[in-house]
């Protein structure tokens, strides 16, 4: 279970160091501080255990990207909870290790402010929802746990209907 504060924040700690270099256009990729492949595999292993996910290829990213799609019967989140179809998150290949996912707007603001994320270039330009972010690849096990928390928030966002 991912805990949040009463106002919906995650209380994410600041990410240490400078932000990694990223490509400012498509394909949006992390260019420095790449996650070690063993941490990427551990994260992917965790990601595939989420309830109702169908691991597969991404509908919007480069070929070595692995994506999580929700079973349509439980994909009740708002349209801005998905990259395409029922794909709510994907993990880029070993040369990158970052993720794209959709998060609630308050979590996006917190993740960006604390140095864990940046908006997707197409979201910055207004072509895609502001819920779409790149989460930087984890550099160690402590960061893996933070990224895993964010993946679970994305999963919950994709499953839960919007409330009025």
From TrEMBL:
It comes from the Bacteria. Coiled coil: none annotated. Residues 1-37 are annotated as: Disordered. Residues 8-27 have a biased composition (Basic and acidic residues). Residues 85-154 form the Luciferase domain. This is Luciferase domain-containing protein. The lineage of its organism: Bacteria, Bacillati, Actinomycetota, Actinomycetes, Mycobacteriales.
């Amino acid at each position: 279970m991912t805990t949040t504060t009463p106002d919906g924040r995650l209380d994410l700690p600041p990410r240490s160091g400078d932000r990694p270099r990223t490509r400012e256009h498509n394909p949006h990729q992390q260019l420095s501080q790449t996650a070690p492949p063993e941490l990427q595999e551990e994260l992917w292993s965790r990601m595939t255990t989420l309830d109702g996910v169908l691991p597969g290829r991404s509908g919007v990213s480069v070929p070595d990207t692995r994506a999580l799609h929700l079973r349509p019967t439980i994909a009740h989140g708002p349209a801005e909870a998905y990259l395409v179809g029922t794909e709510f998150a994907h993990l880029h290949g070993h040369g990158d290790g970052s993720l794209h996912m959709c998060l609630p707007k308050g979590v996006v603001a917190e993740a960006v402010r604390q140095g864990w994320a940046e908006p997707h270039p197409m979201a910055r330009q207004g072509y895609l929802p502001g819920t779409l972010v790149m989460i930087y690849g984890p550099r160690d096990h402590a960061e893996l746990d933070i990224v895993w928390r964010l993946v679970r928030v994305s999963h919950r966002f994709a499953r839960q209907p919007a409330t009025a």
